[in-house]
Amino acid sequence: MRLTSLISISNLVVHQSHAFLNGGAFVGNQIVGRASTSLTRGGRQVLKAVATAPVVTESLTKAAVEARGLAMDSIGYCHSGHLGLPLGCAEIGAVLFGHDSGLTYNPEDPQWINRDRFVLSAGHGSMFLYSWLHLAGYDLPLEEVKNFRRFHSMTPGHPEFPNSEHNTPGVEATTGPLGQGVANAAGMAAAAKMAAARFNTPSHEIFSNTIVALCGDGCIQEGVSSEAACFSAQEGLDNLIVVYDANDVTLDKMAEFTQKEDVAKRYEAYGWDVVTIDGHDLNAVSKALADAKSNKNGNPKLIIAKTVIGKGISAIEGTNAAHGEAGVKYVDESRKELGLPEEKWYVSPETRSFFKEKASSLKDTYNKWQDTYKAWQSANPDLAKLLQSGIDQSTPSAQELLKVIPEFDQTKNIATREAGSVVLQPLADALPLYVSGSADLHGSNKNYIKNGGDFGVNFGKSYTGRNFYYGIREHAMGSILNGINYFGLFRASGATFLVFADYLRATIRVASLAELPVGYIFTHDSIGVGEDGPTHQPVETVSGLRVIPNLDVIRPADPEETAAAYAASIERKEGPTALILTRQNVRTLSEIPVSVRREGTLKGAYVAKKETSDLQLIILASGSEVQWAMDVAKDIPGARVVSMPSMYRFDMQPESYKESVLPAACTKRISIEAGVTPLWWKYVGTAGKVLGTDKFGLSAPGDKVMEVFGMDYKGLKREVEAYM
Amino acid sequence: MRLTSLISISNLVVHQSHAFLNGGAFVGNQIVGRASTSLTRGGRQVLKAVATAPVVTESLTKAAVEARGLAMDSIGYCHSGHLGLPLGCAEIGAVLFGHDSGLTYNPEDPQWINRDRFVLSAGHGSMFLYSWLHLAGYDLPLEEVKNFRRFHSMTPGHPEFPNSEHNTPGVEATTGPLGQGVANAAGMAAAAKMAAARFNTPSHEIFSNTIVALCGDGCIQEGVSSEAACFSAQEGLDNLIVVYDANDVTLDKMAEFTQKEDVAKRYEAYGWDVVTIDGHDLNAVSKALADAKSNKNGNPKLIIAKTVIGKGISAIEGTNAAHGEAGVKYVDESRKELGLPEEKWYVSPETRSFFKEKASSLKDTYNKWQDTYKAWQSANPDLAKLLQSGIDQSTPSAQELLKVIPEFDQTKNIATREAGSVVLQPLADALPLYVSGSADLHGSNKNYIKNGGDFGVNFGKSYTGRNFYYGIREHAMGSILNGINYFGLFRASGATFLVFADYLRATIRVASLAELPVGYIFTHDSIGVGEDGPTHQPVETVSGLRVIPNLDVIRPADPEETAAAYAASIERKEGPTALILTRQNVRTLSEIPVSVRREGTLKGAYVAKKETSDLQLIILASGSEVQWAMDVAKDIPGARVVSMPSMYRFDMQPESYKESVLPAACTKRISIEAGVTPLWWKYVGTAGKVLGTDKFGLSAPGDKVMEVFGMDYKGLKREVEAYM
After folding, report:
1. Has B474 been annotated as catalytic?
2. Which residue is closest to B706 within chain A, CA to CA?
3. With B715 labelled, which of A455, A575, A721, B80 sits at a CA distance of 20 to 30 A?
4. What confidence score (pLDDT) does residue A56 get?
5. Which of A255-269, B473-487, B576-590, B683-697 has the least mean pLDDT?
6. How far apart are CA B368 and CA B388, in angstroms?
7. DSSP characters for A562-631?
8. Does B183 share its domain with B38?
């Protein structure tokens, strides 16, 4: 069989050189293949080129057919799922998992630190991933492929990063919310660059990971991928390859209904290398991947693979009906057309043996790497220890971490964001693999690691830099944070104004679900922001975050609570933590012993002031309002103050501790927090009273706004008096 | 003074024609000016062109200087705010508000329906807007300019669309959260296209609005503007002009630190016309605006205005220090350098008189339009009546609307999303100015107006179409919905899966703050989604929305509650409404009279089943869980069921109604909702019990997932028995 590949030249490339008509076809900045005839496809100039060396084998072709069969059978069996991508990208899967130009991995050691990462950004096409992981020899038995989308299977509807519910080896990211996977991959690529810069030595290369994401039109349309694309080019992530399954179809309609843009040109504008290929041509896929992997020119790579959605179900392929499970009614006839036997979930002995051989060849690479690693380990024992600590995620306990944070000057009143900056420095010294970053608000968020350097290229940046400049791209920041944490070595945190947590909320949800230890530093935490007004004053944001399962939200009251909050965020491995910090100064609560404030914060809530007569009243507060609770309670012997920086942590305490802090016998309770009130009813009870800001704020100096909303000493005193 | 303008040619344009070196400079697709010498600026080829006809006047130059003075004085006075943009864009402001090539407006009638709209997407530069609105003669007295950022001033920190707190004439959108303003403008441009298509006649043009947004690097970097840019080109919004204040600086650093992309090329890839100019050259600004306004070629226009941030404060202009208020310490010397007198907030008699003349000339245009309008009105009385109803936002009451919705077949069980589809049709018939749309999920959200047609161009779309295809761009959809509603004629609603409400949450916040009557149709509302798994199963999302002030969140239990929910969303004018609908079928609660379900929904909660003996227990539920509450309570004489579709509405009822539904005497209460539980404590009380899903869901058939989480008849029965 003589094979040809379709290679398209985007406009820019044509513009960059006019040589293309004379036989040299430009792809990104490289010449590939030899142009023969030109034709037009999808409105873009396309060249039909003879590939320089055929790489396709009968085995890959066969594997692609059988992967199609697996997807059809699993989706058909449960009558649910998405046929479009697994069928349309079967050849891409064959090359990725079956050919040298594809991924470097070891199915026996899915956690191998130098493996390439594959992210299925179009997560709905999960049967693509499961089929290929199974064929490639990962510990994903055929039984589990059959159990697709069933209760407690290893093959949930969308890929889920191994967590306490699932452990599907080879799944590198939780995907489905579109666009985020591309940004996750950018985060992984950044982490890989950092790993290489931090751990490789002139004589030993430990890290050389390539990150490959497969995405669809949905991912390309989402803004988060645009942001991530810009960041990736900016920071020179040439180890990132995005394969764009360009099938010209979205769920509702043909893609042209919503997408007339020139995607190639757009990515070139970001600074990516772009090539357009026929995604069903194994040679073209292989060549594009090989070129992308080898060309370390500083540019990320976009491979636009023109495919036919649902290819293999001739009744509906190429239409939006092929996207979901509608095609299952044609499965029987389609399997026949593909030449598959009647046996469902059929994998031929030839394919089994092909992947056995593939695994063995991959094992050689793996073993060679192990030799390198051992040599590196002997030569660099300290580095090796550091690396191991990253692999093990062996961060110290919060108590240990707190030892490196000196007590604050108890006579000085500072903002908790400022306290955060102070706390961060010794923590960063103690944790070399902790990295920070901000969406263009380093100066305001104050989470800059002072001796950490800046991550990236040019302008004095370096890949060893520990401060990320995400630009004004909060959504991408959130997904990149997830990506860095998925990579598994670095602990990444990022910052913006609290009110803009909304921009990255969709990624916080994924971090919570995937149980990633991401840290969020959200400053400017209430109407106390002042003059910037309601667009910049969070009122509902803290509560909005608190309802996300598995997210710890900590709103410390003063510098010592901030120290504990930071330490807690680093100690926590089972999910993300959001630190909620003030813009404005708060009173340092020097009347409470430092250890009480620190340890109390770790428990979520604690008695900040104990009543000096019979308990009459409990004032609950968080963050900047604790100072007022303390001030007001000072003059009321029967009043207790409970500082509650984290509802999440408090809820997890044993009942005995909860009762010791909030005795059931005392139903006279009042809460104050400069935010919406509904969540406080749980702790205040029916007989209680909740004080807060249940409407949007206003533009005026912060103290004035606080006063207007009663979020100050006078306001609280007035309400407490009225209540008692 | 001889004036020249710098006009850059982006790569594509160069590529499209090679004539540029011979004297013809391409801007977008048009030749402007005559090239003289070429130079390089900011890495892009730039042509120095002699403008064909100087349009600058001494008056505009003077006005720009005085506008700078106003910004310096106001920001200096309150020591807060952002100097960078008002100073860097002073010439742009002068042309926009002072020259024919700029905006068409009437300061005496800021609600004039054919005015051009100006959106300051970079909302932090609010003093730009206030200065120019004041100079242009809007009812924004100098006193209010002086009161910038003070309590209850008309000049809050970021521009706020007139609402119950503020009424600043000329402010067309609440901006500050970056990127959204560009998308708001796209929404306004879409609304203007629709207005023209719906109301203009061959003999009378009532609508010819141009929409101008001014944005900065932050807006350009945000993904939401990317999404909106793609949508705008797709739908041919050539009435949209985005002026990009390209000052090469972001808050933290020089922009090149985070932004190496070629923005011009990127926008060309979307399908925009792009021109790069010197933003301080009045001629160039004027020419670019005039060209952009007149060139109705189907493409939106991007004017990249190279500016010097903070221009006028020589000590820091052009650096990131000029972004905020840091420059106020140089104000005195800078004012002198600019030639301003010592008097603060100085406006010369010449400038006053210039804008008086300008207003008078604008008034001529306005008066001519009034003549046209009157003629049109006489010729088209029905159309005029419809238009007036849009201007007045005179939608019928929910009770009236419910009259057009027939009762459902009470024997059939359908999903509430399906009920939504049924309900939408008569409502859409009754409300010709109501428009719908979806982020590529029309088939799933089922909010398609069946006889409404599709909005846009090509593929059978038309600007009269009432169904918007937003593509897979939820964030832009949210902002575009705001933009359509800002425009003031149409009531726009949009849809996606509930779990992806997170993607547009930042825009829902703005809609709530700006009191826009946006409708959100969020379907697939719980773990009942089933096989798609936890990435697609909202558990926290409903509660996350409920905490947003001024957002009504309604989760109906069955078709009749859905009818009322839809009607309520249309009746409500003071803010947005989110309808939360099921994917799966629910039992139609035929045992409750239709009128009780409908009217009860409008009140937020109601007694769905009254106890038949002494009240022992109240079961509270919402949405799909109400059916289980009814089924379980059927066998318990002392049990009452309260259906609570909207906490927001219930909270606003008089105490007497609340007591009638939830008598304080009955503290035995249990709630069930397939979502996180914390918000229910407010209604259930200390002695109560809350049932829900406080962790992420899992992938399995929906019934199975519901069973696993106890969100079914058996689960509720078990818990109720244990509780009693």
Report:
1. yes
2. A151
3. A575
4. 60
5. A255-269
6. 19
7. HHHHHHHHHH--SS-EEEEE-SSB----TTS-HHHHHHHHHTS-EEEE--SSS--EEEEE-GGGHHHHHH
8. no
Q: pLDDT of A377-427, one tens digit each?
A: 999 999 999 999 999 998 899 999 999 999 999 999 999 999 999 999 999
Burial group, residue B587, by CB count within 10 angstroms (0-12, 13-18, 19+): middle
Label residue B5 by pLDDT band (50, 70, 90).
very low
ipTM: 0.93
Best of B182, B248, B440 to disrupt the A interface (most A CBs within 10 Å) is: B440
* A682 chain-B contacts, CB cut-off 8 A: 678, 681
Q: Are residues B230 and B341 in the same domain?
A: yes
Kindly state the average pLDDT of the residues A259-283: 97
What is the distance between the alpha carbons of residues A155 and A150, in angstroms, rounded to a whole number?
A: 8
Structural domain ending residue among the three candidates A519, A551, A581 = A581
Strand ranges across the sheet with A552-554: A467-469, A434-438, A491-497, A519-523, A577-581, A552-554
- If asked whether residues B552 and B695 sit together in one domain, one would say no
Q: Flag if B12 and A14 touch (Cβ within 8 Å).
A: no
Residue B370, in any domain of the structure: no
Residue A430 has pLDDT above 80, yes or no: yes
Q: Tell me whether residues B234 and A261 touch, CB distance under 8 A.
A: yes
The pLDDT value given to residue A55: 59
Tell if the CB–CB gap between A151 and B700 is shorter than 8 Å.
yes
On whether both B172 and B232 belong to a single domain, the answer is yes
- Give tens-digit pLDDT for B100-157: 999 999 999 999 999 999 999 999 999 999 999 999 999 999 999 999 999 999 999 9
For B400-409, the pLDDT digits (tens) are 999 999 999 9
Chain A: residue whose CA lies nearest to B225: A223
* Active site (catalytic) residues of A: 474
- In-domain check, residue A596: no
Residue B536 with chain A: CB contacts under 8 Å? 157-158, 176
Q: How far is CA B29 from CA A522, B14, B217, B269, B291, in A?
A: 45, 11, 25, 14, 10
- B695: nearest CB among A151, A230, A549: A549
Degrees, nearest 5: CA angle B695-B698-B700: 150
Do residues A538 and B178 lie in contact, with contact meaning Cβ atoms separated by under 8 Å? Answer: no
B88 with B33, same domain: the answer is no
If asked whether residues A355 and A447 sit together in one domain, one would say no
CATH code for the domain of A228: 3.40.50.970
Tell me whether residue A652 is in a domain.
yes
Query: Residue A4 pLDDT more than 60?
Result: no
* CB-closest option in A153, A224, A536 to B223: A224
pLDDT at A30: 32
Of A177, A469, A472, the CB nearest to B500: A177
User: In chain B, how many domains are there?
Assistant: 4
Nearest chain B CA: its distance from A154 CA (Å) = 10
Quick one: B574 and B618 in the same domain? no
Are A505 and B510 an interchain contact pair (Cβ–Cβ within 8 Å)? no
- Interchain proximity A502–B503, CB inside 8 Å: no
Helices (H), A81-208: 84-88, 90-98, 126-136, 142-146, 180-199
- Name which of B226, B534, B696 is nearest A223 (Cβ-Cβ): B226
Q: Is pLDDT of B23 > 70?
A: no
| B323 is an annotated ligand-binding site residue | yes
Mean pLDDT of chain B: 92
Q: Do A700 and B150 touch (CB under 8 A)?
A: yes
A190 pLDDT more than 60: yes
Name the E strands within B410-456.
434-438
Q: Per-residue pLDDT for B410 more than 50?
A: yes
Which residues on A lie below 8 Å from B78 (Cβ)?
531
Domain span holding position A668: 603-723
The pLDDT of residue B55: 60
In a domain, A586, yes or no: no
Are residues B414 and B296 part of one domain? no
Partners of residue B256 in chain A, C-beta under 8 Å: 459
Report CB contact under 8 Å: A260, B234: yes
